[in-house]
Amino acid sequence: MAMTDEQYMQQALAEAQKAFDREEVPVGAIIVMNNRIIARAHNQVEMLNDSTAHAEILALTTAFNFLGSKYLPDATLYVTVEPCLMCSGALYWSKIGKIVYGTDDEKNGYRKCCGNKNPYHPKTKLVSGILKEECAGLMKDFFKARR
Amino acid sequence: MAMTDEQYMQQALAEAQKAFDREEVPVGAIIVMNNRIIARAHNQVEMLNDSTAHAEILALTTAFNFLGSKYLPDATLYVTVEPCLMCSGALYWSKIGKIVYGTDDEKNGYRKCCGNKNPYHPKTKLVSGILKEECAGLMKDFFKARR
Question: Were A19 and a residue from A12, A24, A117, B33 both cysteine, which residue would form a disulfide, CB within 3.0 to 4.6 Å?
């Protein structure tokens, strides 16, 4: 059964909450194909001791392995926060069909370097602002607690 | 014993040659710390069926695991080709001390999106053009054979 972007983003938020509970920067991502969630991941930089273990990267690797394919033209990534430059580059290589993100990230989002240039594959659709307040709220709570 | 940038780039080129021999886009990378090579990797996109399995990413992961650290401020990455956006973002997060690359990549290099904006950590030094001809030659031979 098809779910709405908001419903899928709730699933990404549930992943972000897991990160929050484990004292990781609270970003969560899922990948959906044919109305099915084929990957779920949250930021694991601290746990894996790997500064590149972002939710999007972990979700992409899971999806590649699951599908046995290195491209994801029929899949959609839902991620709670605007992807960084690294994750945007990874999404470019994946040729993913659609990217939906929640809140902007002025500090580390891809637009900091790319400006108005689109770093994604020309066929990739981009949607932002889904459950924006909830996605941003989790980040604010996390960093507030650490200041 | 300290080696020169050219000597280390030869080691990255040897990795690129391995990729070439395995019908992967011939990019190789090594990471050096205290005059010691702590990671060697070549592009494995085809073998791992993962469009993000670039030499730089694989070398970074190896270095993080080897050192048990998610940051590499005292390390240098040698890579035969200008890093793409994804790899540049990953290098940013790693806070690597120095990046040395061989040949420019007009099609996929980070400057395509970033222009003159520096995507790396402010403390990261950047050197390019080391063994440029050799690094570019391997790429040209690879793509010529496939046209």
Answer: A24
The β-bridge relationship of strands B75-81 and A28-33 is unpaired
pLDDT in tens, A75-96: 999 999 999 999 999 999 999 9
Write out chain A residues lying below 8 Å of B89, CB-based.
84-89
Q: Which residue of A has its CA nearest to B119?
A: A113
What φ, ψ does residue B144 adopt, rounded to 5°? -60, -40
| Residues of B that are catalytic | 56
Q: Which of B82, B85, B107 best tests the A interface by mutation, with the highest count of A CBs <10 A?
A: B85
Q: What is the rounded CA–CA span in Å between residue B128 and residue B79?
A: 10
Those residues whose C-beta lies under 8 Å from the C-beta of residue A73, and which sit 6 or more positions away, are A95, A96, A97, A123
Give the one of A52, A92, A95 whose C-beta lies nearest to B90's C-beta. Answer: A52
- The whole-angstrom distance between A68's CA and the closest CA on chain B is 7
ipTM of the complex: 0.95
**Which tens digits make up the pLDDT trace of B34-53?**
999 999 999 999 999 999 99
- Produce one character per residue of A74-110: b if its CB has 16 or more CB atoms within 10 Å, e if not: ebbbbbbbbbbbbbbbbbbbbbbbbbbbbbebeebbb
